[in-house]
């Protein structure tokens, strides 16, 4: 492990994060708001410290990153980005404590969307733009990560796609990670531009359209309004955001194929079929629950149900209603979706549909073996056999995910939180969902939590966003040995 090389790359990434602050600085100049100098100060500190770290660790020989260094860089890069992202919040003075500033920043870059802000609309527009931009940057970052780093961990998910795409055929992704990243960025920017244009047509201001687009495509959920998307009493806006949340929760490599003309790739992909079927089924169930009890119109019930189901399933966290006022069965359905998440290779969090499918297939496989103990039967996905290593990796991830959920929930309970708040806050952060239930529901925020609870949840956000193994592996002694 070449730590000097790792910090050399981290320095460049830190400076790059600082340069992205030029975008909200432009909005600060336009609005002449109080966020200008805090953003300038944060840019100087981030770029200066990044350039210093880059210069002090500079090497003349050309190096090739190995997968262990890649994983270390990813983990450290997210931490560095979270620290840099907190500076504008601190320098404005509108988020008084460092803990709250770090919480808001880490929640942004991990695309969690949990917030400590009671009055979001009181912040300067430029700071709100920076807050939303952290989502957008973190969202695409996780897509590149899932293709470049996570396959080495053997935890299921993108290894399946890697096995399907072994070479540079014309209808598949590029063979080099750099080219793949560029392609996916283009897809990400394309959908962002389309959504922003559609929101403008729906009557949103350019500022609000850009911020909500950032929160949607990154499946983050930061809004510029205290009532989230519920602020807009517009069926058109609700359906547009619902559609693009669904798009963001699907595998972006499928979007790339579709844009190249292979529309059938969606239906041929078993994970996308599972994801779509789940969204449709849960939308219908929730619609039945809230029709006649919360909403008198069937179309209105369908709209609110679809929005909330897609928002929770894709771990976006936008809200158009306080779902804690819905029937308990509806809330139970949404709680389950917090664990599920979207597709592998998407910007969503959670366990991911691919892993859930493999776990279900493995469960059925064990039942089949009890009936036919001498039969030779392999678990298949999309007509292709899944290796035992991938299955073992999925089980390892699932066990760590549940263990982290239980331990973190108990720690939050020890901090004085009631059980509903504690355990829903944990899954909201590990799954990068945003709002939970109880005292951290869609009509509440995380500001009132004890400081220790916030740091525990920040760690949960990071672990959940980086698929757990990427952080835990740093504590394995063998990881650092040559």
UniProtKB/TrEMBL annotation:
Family, as annotated: Belongs to the TrkH potassium transport family.
GO MF terms, alphabetically ordered: metal ion binding; potassium:chloride symporter activity
Transmembrane segments: 7-30, 36-57, 69-91, 133-153, 182-207, 236-254, 274-293, 332-351, 390-413, 419-443, 455-476
Topology with respect to the bilayer: Multi-pass membrane protein
Source species: Desulfovibrio psychrotolerans
Localization, UniProt: Cell inner membrane
List of residues binding K(+): 111-112, 220, 315-316, 432-433
Protein name per the record: Trk system potassium transporter TrkH
GO cellular component term, pick one: plasma membrane
UniProt keywords, alphabetically: Cell inner membrane, Cell membrane, Ion transport, Membrane, Metal-binding, Potassium, Potassium transport, Transmembrane, Transmembrane helix, Transport
InterPro entries on file: Cat_transpt, TrkH
């Amino acid at each position: 492990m070449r730590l000097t090389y790792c910090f050399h790359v981290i320095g460049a990434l830190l400076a790059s994060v600082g340069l992205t602050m030029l975008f909200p600085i432009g909005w600060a100049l336009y609005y002449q708001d109080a966020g200008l100098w805090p953003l300038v100060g944060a840019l100087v500190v981030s770029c200066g410290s990044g350039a210093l770290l880059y210069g002090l660790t500079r090497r003349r020989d050309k190096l090739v990153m190995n997968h262990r260094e890649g994983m270390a860089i990813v983990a450290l890069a997210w931490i560095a980005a979270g620290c840099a992202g907190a500076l504008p919040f601190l320098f404005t003075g509108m988020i008084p404590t460092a803990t709250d500033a770090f919480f808001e920043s880490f929640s942004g870059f991990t695309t969690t969307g949990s917030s400590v802000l009671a009055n979001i609309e009181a912040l300067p527009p430029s700071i709100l733009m920076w807050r939303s931009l952290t989502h957008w940057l973190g969202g695409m970052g996780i897509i590149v990560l899932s293709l470049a780093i996570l396959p080495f961990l053997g935890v299921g998910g993108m290894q399946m796609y890697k096995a399907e795409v072994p070479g540079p055929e014309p209808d598949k992704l590029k063979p080099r990670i750099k080219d793949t990243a560029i392609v996916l960025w283009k897809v990400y920017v394309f959908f962002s531009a389309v959504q922003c244009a559609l929101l403008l047509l729906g009557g949103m201001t350019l500022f609000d359209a850009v911020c909500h687009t950032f929160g949607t495509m990154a499946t983050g959920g930061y809004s510029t309004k205290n009532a989230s998307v519920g602020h807009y009493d517009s069926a058109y806006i609700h359906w547009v955001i619902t559609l693009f949340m669904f798009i963001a929760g699907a595998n972006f490599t499928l979007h790339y194929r579709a844009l190249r003309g292979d529309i059938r790739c969606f239906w041929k992909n078993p994970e996308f079929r599972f994801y779509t079927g789940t969204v449709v089924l849960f939308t219908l169930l929730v619609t039945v629950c809230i029709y006649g009890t919360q909403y008198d119109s069937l179309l209105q019930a369908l709209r609110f149900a679809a929005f909330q189901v897609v928002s929770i399933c894709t771990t976006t966290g936008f809200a158009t209603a306080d779902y804690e006022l819905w029937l308990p069965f509806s809330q139970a359905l949404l709680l389950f979706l917090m664990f599920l998440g979207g597709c592998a290779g998407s910007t969503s969090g959670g366990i991911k549909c691919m892993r859930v499918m493999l776990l279900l297939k493995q469960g059925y496989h064990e039942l089949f073996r009890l009936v036919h103990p001498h039969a030779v039967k392999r678990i298949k996905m999309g007509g292709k056999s899944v290796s035992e290593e991938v299955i073992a990796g999925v089980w390892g991830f699932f066990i760590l995910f549940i263990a982290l959920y239980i331990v973190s929930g108990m720690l939050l309970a020890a901090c004085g939180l009631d059980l509903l708040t504690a355990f829903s806050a944990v899954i909201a952060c590990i799954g990068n969902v945003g709002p939970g239930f109880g005292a951290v529901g869609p009509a509440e925020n995380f500001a009132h939590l004890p400081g220790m609870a916030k740091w525990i949840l920040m760690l949960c956000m990071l672990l959940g966003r980086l698929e757990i193994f990427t952080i835990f592996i740093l504590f394995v002694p063998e990881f650092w040995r040559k």
